[in-house]
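subagent[fold] <- orchestrator: predict structure for attached chain, return tokens only, no commentary.
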Amino acid sequence: MATEAHATEGVTGYIIHHLTPLHVGEGFWTLHLDTLFFSAVLGGLFIWFFKTAAEKATSGVPGLVQNFAEMLIEFVDTQVKDSFHGESKLIAPLALTIFCWVFMWNFMDLFPVDILPLIGSMMGIEYLRVVPSTDLNATFAMSISVFCLIIFYSIKIKGPIGFAKELLLQPFGPWLMPFNLLLKLVEEIAKPISLALRLFGNLYAGELIFILIALLPWYIQPVLSFPWAIFHILIITLQAFIFMVLTIVYLTMAHEHH
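subagent[fold] -> orchestrator:
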């Protein structure tokens, strides 16, 4: 019984250790340093890649970097044109940034779960979570940023009075203003919450499965980890795509006068 309890404590401690972020501060002012670090590094890689592609762009035979960059831009531009029919210099760059950045967040989940934390421990870092999208703070930061843009463009395009009418008069007219406002607030607040929780939930579950696979005997791990990694590539791409498309759709709704 003592051996079983010790083994259970070891498994639980292993899981908790991998799911605990490197943080400073307490309460509301807690900062997850690993999330901030990896988000900044991945954002820098995104900027460096497209800057390099732009500098090396040629009208002749394109290289691999230019081909890949153009393929990403064309893919995102197609999604924007299919959903957004107004004029905006922000939507397409924003959609491209969100898709690439969220995908890079998610891609960190494909690194073996012990490698980067082990390197961190050798540098004196006790805890290290390497997948920013498994941190609810990161997904909410992204979704709240999108939400602020939704409110900004709703007021800019429709005007303060038009936006107020949308809040108070739809869908049941002036006689049910409190009910209209309640429905509209629920609808608007659900947007950032659904964006954040969908991304967080899927990636958190995926990371947990990788951790559980790492607890299995070494001769079983390759049998399960490789198929799950292949399937997980689809998940991380799909989640980045969904976040991007919903952002485009929400901003399209914000630009609609009616």
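orchestrator: received. Logging for downstream: Strands lie at 23-24, 31-32. The CA atoms of residues 23 and 32 lie 4 Å apart.
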